[in-house]
Amino acid sequence: MRRLIFAGVALAVGFVTTAAFAVDDPILTRKKLMQANGAVFYGVANGILKGEIPFNPVVAASVLRTNSAVAYSFGDYFPEDSQEGDTRASPKIWEEMEEFQQYLADFQAAADAAIAADPQTPEAFQTAMEDIGQTCQQCHDEFRLADE
Length: 148
Fold this sequence. Notes:
Four Helix Bundle (Hemerythrin (Met), subunit A)
């Protein structure tokens, strides 16, 4: 368990360090935020839900707080001049910014609800992650370019 916690802390420190240098590069910042979200979602949360990582409410809360941090900061990195470049963000984001912002609000609401629920069991954690995952998937389906 200590290794998991240390790995999570190392990931967070690495992300914060990289993000600090990426402030002037919104595309890089968006990528790093999504990488952090993916690491806790696909790595830690899926590991818990598959039984590969023992459930621990403190670790579960850390996953949810990371999701929340991404939910509340991600939308800040879509200025007009960041539509082109090495990005999987669909140009549709800038054409339908109001709808995109609604997806972000849904992500924030799901993250807030998950944190408020304070899941203390694997089943409660799974429900929280399903709600968050659904908001992520809807936005990705609508506003992320497909893998090539």
